[in-house]
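User: My collaborator sent over this chain with a note saying "see what the structure looks like." That's all I know about it. Can you take a look?
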Amino acid sequence: MLYSQVLAVSSIWKIVGETSTFGVIILAILCGMSVISWVVIFHKWRQFRAVSSHTEKFLHHFRRTRKLGEAHAEARSYAASPIANIYRYGVEELMHLRELKNGSASGQSSGTGLTDHEFDVLEMTMEKTMTDEMVKLERQVVYLATTTSAAPFLGLLGTVVGIMDSFWSIGERGSASLAVVAPGIAEALLATIVGLGAAIPAVIAYNWANARTKNLHDRSSGFILDFLARAKKEEI
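Assistant: Without extra context I'll predict from the sequence alone. Here is the result:
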């Protein structure tokens, strides 16, 4: 088994050594795209793992509170969670609106009764925060989409170059023997394999990241509605 693996690796390097300059450039680009894709994949995996952990911990604490503002200090400890950040900015905006209301209605210490317009302002503040948080999660994911789209076509380009090289060799030597066409065919197949090897992990990771982002967006939207409902109850 080990011998066959060593032989396969040496065969690949032999193919690369006989590949045309243009083919080597295509392979280098594809390998670079693949390496960067794996770096992005690993980074997004760590990011989403932290987001999931912080979100669950924050929501567990939030559900145990009686008033909205009680979890404000703890929310700073879960900065990786979009929901925790939405909550934090929502509470700060709610406190600001209450202060403005108290300033305009002297002697009113509780049950300030925010207007529908003020609740709309609160909702817009939280939705803007949600948008900013989703943008953070979507960073670098676009590179995975680019690799998904471009890598197969670059591999196809390398394949075409390899086939053209085979036909050129046939024309030059006047023979279609295996020894003549094999190097070009091997170059073409290698370009195809490397292109697919770069694209397949990228498309899987891209779909996974999009699904996680959409799930967090839906949960954040639901949290905003829950937050507003509790805020209105406290204002009664």
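A starting point for your reply to your collaborator: Residues 137 and 213 are 7 Å apart (CA to CA).
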